[in-house]
Amino acid sequence: MKVLGFILQKEFRQIRRDTTILRIMFMLPIIQLVIFPLAMDFDVKSINISIVDNDHSTYSQKLISKIASSGYFKVVSAETSFKKSLAYIEKGQADLVMEIPAGFERNLVREGVQKIGISVDAINGTKAGIGGQYLNSIITDFNVNIDMNLRGAIAPEQQGAIDIRYTNWFNPRAEYKYNVVPAILVLLLTMIGGFVTALNIVKEKEVGTIEQINVTPIKKWEFILGKLIPFWVIGMIVFTLGLTISWLVYGIVPRGSFLTLYAFAAVYLIALLGFGLLISTYSDNQVQAMFVAFFFIMIFILMSGFFTSTDGMPGWAKVISDMTPVAHFVKTDRMIILKGSSFDDVKMEFLYLVGFAAVLNGWAIWNYRKTN
Amino acid sequence: MNAVELHKISKTYDKGKLRAVHEVSFKVKKGELFGLIGSDGAGKTSLFRILTTVLLADSGSATVAGFDVVKDYQQIRNRVGYMPGKFSLYQDLTIKENLEFFAAIFGTTIDENYELIKDIYDQIKPFSDRRAGKLSGGMKQKLALCCALIHKPEVLLLDEPTTGVDVVSRKEFWAMLKALKEKGITILVSTPYMDEANLCERIALIQNGEIMSVDTPENIIKSFPTTLFAAKSENIYKLLNDFRSDAKVDSCYAFGEFLHITLKENGGSDIEDLKEFAAQKGHNDIFIQQITPGIEDSFIRLMQEKTQKPTH
């Protein structure tokens, strides 16, 4: 135990001395938490639309002004033919083309039915999808409110229509920041546990200092713990820093208990430290470790529900997602922070994380013994 | 009791494809300064790694300070000071911090064994707050030696300590080894430099993973089986080729500014014969002289014998 103390003292001294890494570790939460939630806003506001009005009627004018005044669309051009409008999409100046056919008003009044053509630039999938939806809902709204329908000569299907109202629970205004802030907290721990630890251990191999350590009476577990404990401590500090920033900047305070949250963070960090250790046992130098860690952490982040909901994944992808520790912590982290879930609600996820911690560390230690 | 004993140690890498050392056996007596002499890739580092218990031999057995390298590796690690060929201390820690750290993990302090490292440490003490990475090669080497000595080891294993170090520092380093030997520490040191072989009490010549000879430097030189001549002329390269084509010449190789030559049979007028041969080939300024062989000559001769008459 005394030896472990000396190793820890040495490790902290070295970490403190590597000011670049130290700065990155502590700047990371600040930058990520301040920039990401603001930048990653899926609420699309300025959709450029080009309109072809072949009707030039009162109704078509009304529809166009409704779209223009919605706040979501910017009418970039009004053209006389679809071809001319499409040129705007081709040049990337418009995201949507809406074509109002000739006889729009007449058909609406006489037959109660009319079709409108909408063409969407699907290069930017999100913008196109959301823009299309907005446009749809504006047109539906327009449809309900046109004089003819209001006057009572109402089309029968409108009468018993079900009016759907949404309420976003736990995130009433569906603001993206509530979604992304807890996930970034997880990302922070992932970076420190996965990257920094792997690099630190491999560095000893690369520089050759492990050669000198191996011939001393230091036991393997002392060396490993000496490596893991400092980064565990730093990880917890960074996590706390992250929580403080999300409170200061976004006013997000965990609704659930801090104890549960920290218990999860602690176990998650142990699992990720094991992951870092595992990578280090398979790599000979820092470049290798960096690439391997990057490869897996990319998968972790993309599959974890960080950006996209895991519920929408196909079955096989869901299995992969479940096999990453990140997915479990992203999920519970959101539950505890936003929903106020108690430990009882998330105890299965906790067991998963304990399992990951045990498997990753066990594997790493087993492999570490074998190679040395 | 011998401080270090190797018995038919063999080690291969890449699943047996690459032979590192083959049936190496030698003994280092207690308190001896023993040199392991061989060129790069001869297997010296593999032997050191086996002796320091970080590498397992495929076959054979070895003891260090009386303990088996496999069974009692923990015992050995407390009794051995190891200095790897590559500088392996923490470059981001200062001289003092490195030394303190290594003292601490061996359960001792700098003060406790200060007597042992005093002479060496005093030379780097003025820089004790400088980070190890910022030291010159000679200073790094002194620091590494201090760290290897800080726990008062019985056996000191030094893997090519003088490689890449300037001539003056090398001289100083060997003087330090002599002083440590006086204090009763057994030293096993490897080097690719033949001139350092003379500074050891006994040496083992190693080539391609096999020990060619183990003896005192004097005996190895004495056992040089034939007369050695040094020769030079205006055109040394042509002279080398000419002598190699001479049927009477057994071996001829470049050695500094001279050629070293041995003959298949020695007679009374060898020098005159060689001179005459060189003159016939049109050489000017011919100089030929009989010389006493050095370790390098013995090494080259042993190497040639091995390749000419492969015993394995």
From TrEMBL, chain A:
Topological type in the membrane: Multi-pass membrane protein
Keyword Transmembrane helix assigned: yes
Compartments where found: Cell membrane
GO cellular component: plasma membrane
Membrane-spanning intervals of the chain: 21-40, 180-202, 229-253, 259-279, 291-309, 350-368
Major site of localization recorded for this protein: membrane
InterPro entries named in the record: ABC-2_transporter_component, ABC2_TM, ABC2_TM_bact-type
All residue ranges annotated as the ABC transmembrane type-2 domain in the record: 132-371
The keyword Transferase belongs to this UniProt entry's keyword annotation: no
Gene3D superfamilies: abc type-2 transporter like domain
Similarity comment text for this entry: Belongs to the ABC-2 integral membrane protein family.
Name the UniProt record assigns to this protein: ABC transporter permease
Automatic annotation (TrEMBL), chain B:
Transmembrane segments: none
Pfam families in the cross-refs: ABC_tran (PF00005)
SUPFAM superfamilies (alphabetical): P-loop containing nucleoside triphosphate hydrolases (SSF52540)
Gene3D superfamilies: P-loop containing nucleotide triphosphate hydrolases
InterPro entries in UniProt: ABC_transporter-like_ATP-bd, ABC_transporter-like_CS, ABC_transporter_ATP-binding, P-loop_NTPase
Domain ABC transporter: 4-233
Keywords: ATP-binding, Nodulation, Nucleotide-binding, Transport
Gene Ontology molecular function, alphabetical: ATP binding; ATP hydrolysis activity
The family this protein is said to belong to: Belongs to the ABC transporter superfamily.
Protein name in UniProt: ABC transporter ATP-binding protein
Organism: Dyadobacter frigoris
